[in-house]
Design a protein that fits this description.
single chain; five-stranded antiparallel beta sheet; alpha+beta; about 25% helix; globular
Length: about 290
């Protein structure tokens, strides 16, 4: 989709320039795949009536800040730039232990190989689509979002708290998602992914991902079927019944053309059963739906 309303492109050479452009009304641009995928509106400003929106008129290209794609941390964790593409993340030597899981998760995106080469992991979070598989991956890895704030500060929030609803994030005006920090423990865990869609090549209607740590802590993450990510944790692997009940007891289910809330609740419960089965019995692996 052409962004016919955009009349200005900012090419910042420092974070201060980027913050200034965003505070002036520009929208952050990285890979651009989400921006070009559908029409986008942003708040009209403080002087406008509440809820009023206006078409995008300016973009600020974060790629010009030239952040390193993947950096090792002293504790063995990884710092992945928000501007790193899906393909770069997958192919980087430092992410090799996580590659099977990341591949399975990113494959749940409705995206061609060209999007993998251009779309960014951080951009997938900031688009805040319920079906954002990059969001699911970050939550399952227990990643932390590093956010630049205007004035030179930095704050961190769990990746699971970045997306707060369809098309909405926790980012305040002028803030920039700088990186995702993945803990070292993530490379020692076991993972499983189950996706459901109304059609085989359609957008995810339900996505359940799971992680089992060596100490027995188990995490299930539900996305696509709910408006914002839901993270469920147990100190020990749950039984299949416990996992299914916990998922189906979630209070809100998303409703859009990708699936009815009742159907999403049903298939998410089925996915929870399969994820727990694979995590606790590695020999078991069912073909994704």
């Amino acid at each position: 989709m052409d962004l016919v309303s955009v009349t200005a492109l900012h090419r910042p050479r420092s974070r201060d320039e980027a913050h200034a452009a965003l505070l002036a009304g520009a929208t952050a641009l990285a890979g651009g795949t989400a921006l070009h995928g559908e029409a986008h509106l942003h708040p009209a400003g403080a002087a406008a009536p509440p809820g009023e929106t206006t078409p995008l008129t300016a973009l600020v290209d974060l790629l010009d800040l030239r952040w390193p794609d993947v950096e090792p941390l002293p504790d063995g964790g990884l710092r992945v730039a928000a501007t790193a593409t899906l393909r770069t993340v997958l192919d980087h030597p430092l992410t090799a232990p996580l590659r099977p899981f990341l591949h399975d998760a990113f494959s749940c995106l409705l995206a061609s190989w060209k999007i993998w080469g251009r779309g960014t992991w951080g951009g997938n979070l900031c688009a805040a689509l319920p079906a954002g598989a990059g969001t699911a991956a970050a939550c399952t890895l227990d990643a932390t979002a590093e956010i630049w704030t205007p004035g030179g500060g930095t704050r961190t929030v769990p990746a699971a708290e970045v997306v707060v609803g369809p098309g909405r994030t926790c980012l305040a005006p002028g803030e920039i998602l700088r990186a995702l920090v993945i803990p070292a423990a993530a490379s020692r865990a076991r993972y499983a992914v189950r996706r459901h869609s109304l059609v085989p090549s359609g957008r995810s209607g339900s996505l359940v991902t799971g992680r089992l740590d060596p100490g027995g802590r188990c995490t299930l993450v539900v996305t696509a079927a709910v408006p914002a990510p839901k993270v469920l944790t147990w100190d020990r692997p749950p039984t299949a019944g416990e996992a299914e009940a916990a998922v189906r007891d979630l209070p809100r289910w998303h409703d859009d053309p990708q699936g009815d809330p009742g159907w999403r609740r049903h298939v998410a419960g089925i996915a929870a059963l399969a994820v727990v089965a694979e995590l606790t019995h590695p020999i078991y692996r069912e073909a994704p739906c």
